[in-house]
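Quick log. Single chain, no ligands specified.
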Amino acid sequence: MTYANPEALVSTEWLAEHLSDPDVRILDCTWHHASTNLDGRTQYRGRHLPGSVHFDIDHIADKLSPLPHMLPSASDFAKKVGLLGIGDGDRVVVYDRLYGGAAAARVWWMFRVFGYDKVAMLEGGYGKWTKEKRPSDMSMVRPEPRSFTAAYHPALVRSLSEMQENLATAAAQVIDARGPAKFDGTQQDVFPFKKLGHIPNATNIPWADLIDPDTGAFITPDMLAARFTMAGINLERPIVTSCASGITSCVVALGLYLLGHKTAAVYDGSWAEWGLAEDTPAVAA
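-> predicted structure:
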């Protein structure tokens, strides 16, 4: 079995051969929660892939929302991405330092939400790249601003009200990408909450289950398809993915895309929103 949509990934071998292509733009999307005492921008300044610029999901976000890194407007996304040196027609490659590329997958999804499909994630990210002793750089990259066009595609995003409506209609299958302890409410989340557990009728597929821990790349297509099948997910039906704050859910959405399910949506607010709302039910162990 092969991926139905392999264009969503690029290998380290491919990128090494195309580093100097004039239309290739590389984004270091490394992000860490504040509780880790790590900072993606600082890590970028220390070492990064040659020619890459840092994409901060907390900066390219709706700054008026009290929720973490919610989607910005199309115009704000276009402006800030253009300032990163990305223009219409460029081939965008995203990566980060967390195995599996959690924040990189979010950025991949963001580009697709804003109507841009020429974006792919680097398989295995920075970890695989450096293990293979490929080049990295310390010099700051100051790109020339370019013109980027963005058009919002709401079909790839779900809001709180739509998720509440889905409780009654069950029109979409809901996949929760968090770990089992957060899913069943026995472990607290890192974001503020009023309740623990998960959205009723959600299926737990931890995002790390889709990643090979040795390489940081996705598991084989056969294994990936089997993981969804074992969880009872029907790839012919609508799917929405959720997590803690809309990051690791994008890894699951990317996995579904690879298997041919191009329309999987992401609940942008995820548990950071659902767990704080007054009128949202939760299921706990």
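The chain has ten helices and ten strands.
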